[in-house]
C-alpha cells in the first residue's frame, strides 16, 4: 500500500497503551486485573429491562440526532436545575468519548493550542492533535493539584481550550471547589474555552463534586452513563454548554455518529431514576483498601475520586516495573507513560472485586520489598 494513502493525522498517536495491556490480559490465565477502567457492577435491572422492552417494541431505528425526547428533556431539566443558565443546551452523544471528539472538532483549528494537564486521560491530547491543534502540557506532579500559576503562564494568544477532568483519570485526584472556581474564572478572563470531562462526577469520596460550569457559563461539559450506571458498552453520553457551540457539535454529530443507540437512550432515561449510591459507597471502601494496603510501601497521593490510584514505581522506570508485574506475577496495571510525559508512576484501577484488589495489593507489597 502506498505510504501517502494514510493521512498524517493517524500519526498523532500510537495504539492505546491501555488496549495493549487488555490484549495481553486475554493471553493470561487467571490474571490479577487492576487495569480496566470500567465498573464491575452491572446496569441496573430496571434499565436492562427497559432496553429489552425497547428492542422488542421495535425502537431500533434512528433516533433524533439531539437525542430521544424522553432522555434529552430529562437531562435538560436536570442541567437547568443544577446551573440555572439562560443559555445552556444539552444533547445526547455516543458516549463521553463521542462528546469529547465533537467538542474538539467544533472548537480547535489547525495551529490552535489546547492546554492539557499531565498526567491526563489519553484521549485529550490525541484528539487535539487529530484536529491539528498544538498540545501544551501543564505538569501537575507531585500532588496532581491544579497549578493555576502554570496554567496562566501557558495561555497565549493561540490558546483555544483547556481540557479539564475531575475526578481524574489516571490519578483519582479531585480538584477542590476553590481550585475549580479559580480555573473557571481564569478561563473566562482569558477568553479560553474550558472543556470539562465529568464522567466520574458521582465517584467523589471525600466531598461534593464541583463543576467549573457553576462559575463559568461558557464551559462545555461532557458526561455520560458509562461509569455511573455500569453501561460502558452502551455508548451513551451527553454534552451541554452555550447553545451556539452545542448546535455546531450537533451538526458534526449528524455527519459522523448520527445518533446514540436508540434503545439504550430509552433505557438511560429509566436509569436516571435509579439510586446507585450503594455502588459509590462500595467504591469508597475499595479506595480505602488500596490506600491502606500500599501506604507504607509506596509514594501514593490518596485518590479522592474515580476508581484509580497512581503510585510511584518504587524502583526502575514505571515501564520496567509494570513489565515485571505482568510477566512474573500476572498483575495487570498500566505504566504511567501511557498518560504522561513521565515514566515514573503506574495506574491501578480498583473497579473490581475486593478479592482481586487484595491479591493485587499483596503482589505490589512483595514487589516493593524487592
Our count of helices gives 12
- The rounded distance between the terminal residues' Cα atoms is 48 Å
Beta-strand segment tally: 12
> Class of the largest domain in CATH?
Alpha Beta
The CATH homologous superfamily of the largest domain:
Type I PLP-dependent aspartate aminotransferase-like (Major domain)
Q: Are there runs of 5+ residues with pLDDT below 50, and where?
A: none
N-to-C SSE string, H for helix and E for strand: HEHHEHEHEHEHEEEHHHEHEEEH
CATH domain topology of the largest domain: Aspartate Aminotransferase, domain 2
What is the annotated CATH architecture of the largest domain?
A: 3-Layer(aba) Sandwich
**Spatial strand arrangement across the major sheet:** 2-8-7-6-5-3-4
Mean pLDDT equals: 95
Helix content: 25-40%
Counting structural domains, the number is 2
As a whole number of angstroms, the C-alpha radius of gyration is 20 Å
Shape: globular
In terms of DSSP E residues, the strand content is 5-15%
Largest sheet: 7 strands, mixed
Class per helix and strand makeup: alpha/beta
Amino acid at each position: 500500500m502506498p505510504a501517502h494513502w494514510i493521512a498524517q493525522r493517524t500519526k498523532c498517536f500510537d495504539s492505546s497503551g491501555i488496549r495493549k495491556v487488555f490484549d495481553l490480559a486475554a493471553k493470561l490465565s487467571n490474571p490479577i486485573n487492576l487495569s480496566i477502567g470500567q465498573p464491575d457492577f452491572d446496569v441496573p435491572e430496571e434499565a436492562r429491562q427497559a432496553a429489552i422492552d425497547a428492542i422488542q417494541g421495535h425502537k431500533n431505528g434512528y433516533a433524533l440526532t439531539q437525542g430521544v425526547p424522553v432522555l434529552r428533556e430529562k437531562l435538560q431539566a436536570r442541567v437547568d436545575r443544577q446551573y440555572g443558565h439562560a443559555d445552556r443546551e444539552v444533547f445526547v452523544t455516543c458516549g463521553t468519548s463521542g462528546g469529547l471528539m465533537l467538542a474538539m472538532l467544533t472548537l480547535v483549528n489547525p495551529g490552535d493550542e489546547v492546554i492539557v494537564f499531565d498526567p491526563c486521560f489519553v484521549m485529550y491530547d490525541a484528539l487535539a492533535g487529530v484536529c491539528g491543534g498544538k498540545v501544551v502540557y501543564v505538569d501537575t506532579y507531585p500532588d496532581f493539584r491544579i497549578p493555576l500559576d502554570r496554567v496562566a503562564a501557558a495561555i497565549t494568544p493561540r490558546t483555544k481550550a483547556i481540557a479539564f477532568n475531575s475526578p481524574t483519570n489516571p490519578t483519582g485526584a479531585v480538584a477542590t471547589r476553590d481550585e475549580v472556581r479559580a480555573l473557571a474564572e481564569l478561563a473566562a478572563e482569558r477568553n479560553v474555552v474550558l472543556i470539562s470531562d465529568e464522567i466520574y462526577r458521582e465517584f467523589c469520596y471525600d466531598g461534593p463534586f464541583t463543576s467549573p460550569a457553576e462559575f463559568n457559563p461558557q464551559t462545555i461539559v461532557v458526561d455520560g452513563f458509562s461509569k455511573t450506571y455500569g453501561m460502558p458498552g452502551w455508548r451513551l453520553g451527553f454534552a451541554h454548554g452555550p447553545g451556539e457551540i452545542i448546535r455546531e457539535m450537533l451538526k458534526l454529530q449528524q455527519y459522523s455518529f448520527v445518533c446514540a443507540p436508540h434503545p439504550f437512550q430509552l433505557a438511560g432515561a429509566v436509569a436516571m431514576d435509579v439510586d446507585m449510591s450503594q455502588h459509590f459507597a462500595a467504591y469508597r471502601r475499595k479506595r480505602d483498601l488500596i490506600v491502606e494496603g500500599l501506604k507504607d510501601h509506596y509514594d501514593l497521593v490518596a485518590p479522592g475520586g474515580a476508581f484509580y490510584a497512581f503510585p510511584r514505581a518504587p524502583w526502575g522506570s514505571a515501564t520496567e516495573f509494570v513489565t515485571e508485574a505482568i510477566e512474573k506475577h500476572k498483575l495487570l496495571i498500566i505504566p504511567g507513560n501511557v498518560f504522561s510525559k513521565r515514566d515514573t508512576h503506574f495506574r491501578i484501577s480498583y473497579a473490581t472485586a475486593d478479592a482481586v484488589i487484595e491479591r493485587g495489593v499483596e503482589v505490589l507489597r512483595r514487589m516493593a520489598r524487592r
